[in-house]
Amino acid sequence: MSVYSxxxxxxxxxxxxxxxxxxxxLVHIGTTILRFSTVSQLxxxxxRLQTISSEIKGSYYNS
Length: 63
Prior knowledge:
The chain has one domain. It contains 1 helix and 3 strands; from the N terminus they run βββα. About 35% of the residues lie in helices and about 35% in strands.
């Protein structure tokens, strides 16, 4: 299984006392964390990835 298929998420960042210090959506992919301020930003990113995937399928021989 690829590390990229193991994407998970969390919501907000907290300090040591459990108080929210950053309201956001965090997408965890392996050791990489992508931060989005809103779900709308995440949706735009997903749409862009879908476009990129379509472009790759059109030009990459191993798709």
